[in-house]
Amino acid sequence: MTLVADASLRLDAGFWDYTLIAVYFAFVLGIGVMARYAVSDSLDFFLSGRSLPAWVTGLAFISANLGAIEIVGMSANGAEYGMPTMHYFWVGAVPAMLFLGIVMMPFYYGSKVRSVPEFMLRRFGPAAHLVNAISFAAAQVLIAGVNLFLLATLVNALLGWPTPVAIVAAAVIVLSYITLGGLSAAIYNEVLQFFVIVAALFPLTMVALNRVGGWDGLVDGVRDSTGSTEQMSAWPGNELAGFDSSVLSVVGIVFGLGFVLSFGYWTTNFVEVQRAMASKSMSAARRTPIIGAYPKMFIPFLVVIPGMIAAIIVPELSEFKQTQSDAAGVDYNDAILLLIRDLLPNGMLGLAIAGLLASFMAGMAANISSFNTVFSYDIWQRYVVKDREDQYYLRVGRTITVVATVAAIGTAFIASGYSNLMDYLQQLFSFFNAPLFATFILGMFWKRMTAAAGWIGLVAGTLSAVTVFVLSETGVLDLPGQGSAFLAAGAAFVVDVVVSVVVSRATAPKPERELVGLVYGLTPKEDLRDPRDRDEAWYQRPGLMAGIALVLIIALNIIFF
User: Fold this and answer.
1) CA nearest 116: which of 388, 436, 382?
2) Which of 302, 372, 398, 560 would you call most buried, defined as having the most Cβ atoms within 10 angstroms of its Cβ?
3) Distance (Å, whole) CA 231 – CA 395
């Protein structure tokens, strides 16, 4: 991957651009300082005291996912694959977000667990809990490295600093406000960052569409550059899925991405679930991902479309797409930066840069804030140092935040080896999220699943995903695009389920009385209600909000079929 160090890629920021960026950083650090005064115990630091309203946690929920991976990764996907990239939003996100809000949040929030691994502890016992906690912690450090690398890439482009220096500088900024204010600082900054990101990307998209000649001009440009208009249709997405067969492509996208990877990420990933857990009531927790689903379904127009346009109007990127030669020193990951460089004047350039900085910091902060919670509660307090006073674990949380940031500096360089970072991310999700979802969904709906099946199935599923990855990397399986990640995710899910069923049949389950609140069929409906929600208005009902979102997402898939 390029490091955007070439002088031709340097962003020509002026005085007002730097002023706007400085004002933004002042706000970010100010929020961290103010949030510090609200932190009196570990629950405040890790879960904001479970006191935040739904609109705040809902925007933070989506902003936590609107990081470097989303902005750079999806614009890169748009430049490479075109409209099929929309599947990551309309098939690979929104349905799972709605499922999380309607079905799974009542169990997470109602059980009063402090993390997703802690739910695993109650359902399956220490072995599955430890496997989940360690794998989650490792995943967050790796993914934080991606966000950090891209944040440093932007600092490199803006200031011309060497990438190692830029990585350290970028890490210090995020570390400052997370260490000060914990999750509250992260969440309130994520709300600010959401509006900054939209304010930056909307004008960029409008200017880019105008430059290419509107929608008709985009269609013509895609036809001229690829020889067909296939990239203007979301389905069947053969190039994205890596299958020549349209049927296999649709199956891979719907099952591999839309079911396994998507539900695995959105319903079990503590990075996202943590925001909902910080809500002030059960209804607010359920509405958190549903509120986030509304902007999520329209965000691709602000990230995918600019990537597609960049591959048409930016000469270096257009050449790269035609020849796959990096002679010009660029690749798909540079799409959004190249578009900003070519289209935005000073002033607007500063807003766009602030938006990118906001997105990168939101993503990394989400990874770090969830990592410090899981490490402190699920690893350190549970297995290393038990039964200490609350302030001790608060100090551990702040200390491990520093350690995790340093580790992310190291993993940032791993990300540099991929020309399309979504390839790397989807592979990580197939390792960590796909098998976890299989274990969760089976354990939540099947009371017969045993503790032994919880951890054995999880390990077996992960190993199967790694096996598919190795076979793909060694050429035994020829799956271009992100097909290997989709196949690995499907294999992990199926293997996990099969192994879990076999092991469960051979081992003894927990008594039913110990599964109340943890298994769907054994939990009374009144246990999933919160007395604080009795006065909610009709338009605040999670079911109604989710139904409207589902209709909209179906309509978008039909329109862009």
Assistant:
1) 436
2) 372
3) 51
Please give the angle made by the CA atoms of 501, 506 and 511, to the nearest 5 degrees.
Answer: 85
Look at the chain and report how many structural domains it folds into.
1
Whole-Å CA distances, 138 to 125, 135, 143, 352, 440: 20, 5, 9, 32, 19
Residue 416 pLDDT more than 80? Answer: no
Torsion of CA 260, 263, 265, 271, to 10 degrees: -160
Residue 5 has a pLDDT of 43
Percentage of residues of the chain with pLDDT beyond 70: 78
Task: Write out the E strands in 93-218.
Answer: none
Is 385's pLDDT higher than 70? yes
Most distant pair of Cα atoms in the chain: their distance: 69
pLDDT digits (tens, 9 = 90+) for 51-76: 677 778 888 888 777 766 677 778 88
With respect to residue 328, please indicate whether it lies within any of the assigned structural domains.
yes
Q: In angstroms, rounded to a whole number, what is the distance separating the alpha carbons of residues 497 and 502?
A: 9
| Cα–Cα distance for residue pair 454/441, rounded to 1 Å | 11
Computed from CA positions of residues 158, 162, 167, 169, in that sequence, does the dihedral angle turn out positive or negative? negative
DSSP-assigned states of every residue in 13-78: --HHHHHHHHHHHHHHHHHHHHHHTT--SHHHHHHGGG-B-HHHHHHHHHHHHSSHIIIIIHHHHH
Instruction: Using CB atoms within 10 Å of the CB of residue 511, give its burial: 0 to 12 exposed, 13 to 18 middle, 19+ buried.
Output: exposed
362 vs 269, more confident: 269
Token look-up 């990537």 returns 307
Residue by residue, DSSP assigns 528-552 as G--GGGTT--GGG-HHHHHHHHHHH
Distance of CA 288 to the CA centre of its chain: 15
Phi, psi (deg, nearest 5) at residue 436: -65, -40
Whether residue 206 is predicted with pLDDT greater than 80 in this model: the reply is: yes
Find, among 440, 459, 304, 375, the residue nearest to 136 by Cα: 375
Q: What value does the mean pLDDT take over residues 376-403?
A: 84
| 311 or 169: which leads in pLDDT | 311
- DSSP-assigned letters across all residues of 186-248: HHHHHHHHHHHHHHHHHHHHHHHHHHHTHHHHHHHHHHHHHSSSGGGS-SS-HHHHT-SSHHH
**Is residue 286 included in any domain, yes or no?**
yes
User: What are the CA-CA distances from residue 363 to residues 72, 239, 327, 378 (Å)?
Assistant: 12, 28, 31, 22
Which 8-state DSSP code applies to residue 104?
A: I
Q: What SS3 class is residue 279?
A: strand
Any domain includes 479? no
Closest alpha carbon to 343 in 298, 319, 312: 312
Burial 218-253 (b: 16+ CB within 10 A, else e): beebbeebbeeebbbebbbbbbbbbbeeeeebbbbb
Omega of the bond leading into 236 within 30 degrees of 0 (cis):
yes
Can you give the residue range of the structural domain that contains 241? 15-415+528-560
- In DSSP terms, 52 is beta-bridged to 279
- Domain with residue 112: its CATH number is 1.20.1730.10
Is residue 438 one of the residues assigned to a domain? no
Answering whether pTM is above 0.90, one says no
- Tell me: the pLDDT tens digits for 102-112? 888 887 877 77
* 469-516 pLDDT per residue, tens: 888 778 777 766 566 777 888 888 899 999 999 999 999 888 888 888
